[in-house]
Design a protein that fits this description.
The chain is built from five helices and seven strands, in the order H-E-E-E-H-H-E-H-E-E-E-H. The chain has 171 residues and is of the alpha+beta class.
Length: 171
């Protein structure tokens, strides 16, 4: 009996792992943002949001009625960050961790994507008068593993209308 079940279990495990690999490869890139709430956004071939996944209960409560499908990635992240600020999940001094996984499906311009996202996040935070650190990293899918690229950086974001907050070393 056990000899018959073991091959079935192994086959099921193999199918599940292949399905998981195929799921990542179905997207151009995947962005994960952590700011108390953790959300994963997957980009379709055109770079817009194809799927969004709340990774914790805080994320699930941010924008339950918003349809992110087809939205530009920077716009979707702006909506999420504004909702996190409005809900009190993101306040002065906190860190937003943003990671981008290039699935290897196409040739996305990672630098341009990160710049557009950084500009959008900065505008939302400036409008909300919230100062945070943005910790950005990217990696590339390499046959099931992720390869860290040397693009990790921490960027302090300050509202631009408050010169006192812009000067890290006031006199």
């Amino acid at each position: 009996m056990m000899k018959k079940i073991l091959p079935l279990l192994l086959a099921a495990a193999l199918l599940l792992s292949l399905a998981a690999c195929g799921k990542k490869a179905a997207y151009l890139y995947i962005i994960t943002i952590r700011m108390g709430a953790e959300v994963e956004l997957s980009a379709g071939d055109d770079g817009t949001v194809a799927q969004i996944t709340a990774k914790n209960k805080e994320a699930a409560s941010l924008c339950p009625d918003t349809n992110f499908s087809g939205m530009k990635m920077a716009d979707a992240l702006s909506v999420l960050i504004k909702a996190a600020v409005d809900a009190g999940l993101l306040t002065d001094g906190q860190t937003i961790a943003l990671s981008l996984l290039d699935t290897g499906k196409g040739s996305p311009d990672i630098e341009s994507i990160l710049k557009e996202i950084g500009d959008a996040i900065s505008k939302v935070l400036t409008d909300a008068n919230v100062s945070v650190n943005l910790d950005v990293s990217s990696s590339q899918e390499t046959g099931g593993d992720s390869l860290k690229l040397p693009t990790q950086m921490e960027i302090p974001l300050y509202p631009q209308d408050d010169p006192a907050k812009n000067d890290p070393d006031p006199v």
